[in-house]
Amino acid sequence: KDVEKEREPHVYLSKEEVKEKIQSYNSSVTDKLKMTLNANGIYTGFIKVQLELCRPITVQSSQSQGRCAHSNNDTAFYLPDGCVNTLHISSTNTVREVIEALLKKFLVADNPAKFALYKRCHKEDQVYTCKLSDREHPLYLRLVAGPRTEMLSFVLREHETGEVMWEAFSIPELQNFLRILDKEENEQLQILKRRYAAYRDKLEEALGGVWKPG
């Protein structure tokens, strides 16, 4: 279930409260991805982000893998569905900075404005997904929720169709997308043709058995 506004208010925590929460967080961690509190009150830690991208991303062609379509030095291709990446960030990093760091880690050349970070959480036996604002702090959300990803997880998606900033796409990118769509359409068409050809052969074989002369 997607909701537009299901955000927890960012409650100011004292340095002592942060210290207690980090100690509690670290005592529950099972994957060694602990948080560290610095003397200046800023803390660092890890978040995992699942990629749920429907459209292809653009990277340098030398870095590409999988299905792709080329244009100049860029390559557009689809990331594997459900790919998860771990980022080391600080409590001062905003959602926008996290998106930029994630794209940089994957060597993605696309404009960060095309993407949005969502949080997915469980409440009363239901799963809620909502888009985070650019100024929210993911590590704070992680600290408050605890380390269990089934209670809170982060997801990177494209903006919804009605929110897409088309001016953020370059002409070569759009041309790459069209080439990929044409290729996939042709592949699906060939699959359908083979499927119906097989049905036709079976029907003709069955009819031949029924209408044997004599």
Strand segment tally: 9
Radius of gyration: 24 Å
Structural class: alpha+beta
Percentage beta strand: 15-25%
What fold name goes in the CATH topology slot of the largest domain?
Ubiquitin-like (UB roll)
Account of the 3D structure:
- A hairpin with a 2-residue loop joins strand 7 and strand 8.
- Helices cover 34% and strands 24% of the residues.
- Strands 1, 2, 6, 7, 8 and 9 form a six-stranded mixed beta sheet that branches. A three-stranded antiparallel beta sheet has the order 3-5-4, with helices on one face.
- The protein is elongated and about 85 Å long.
- It folds into two domains: 15-61 and 68-161, Phosphatidylinositol 3-kinase Catalytic Subunit, Chain A, domain 1 (Ubiquitin-like (UB roll), Roll); 168-209.
- It contains four helices and nine strands; from the N terminus they run αββββββαββαβα.
- It has 214 residues and is of the alpha+beta class.
- The model is unreliable at 1-7 and 63-71 (pLDDT under 50).
Blueprint (SSEs and pairs):
Blueprint: H1 15-28, E1 36-37, E2 43-51, E3 57-60, E4 68-71, E5 74-77, E6 84-90, H2 95-105, E7 115-123, E8 126-131, H3 138-145, E9 152-158, H4 171-210
Parallel strand pairs: 2-9
Antiparallel strand pairs: 1-2, 2-6, 3-5, 4-5, 7-8, 7-9
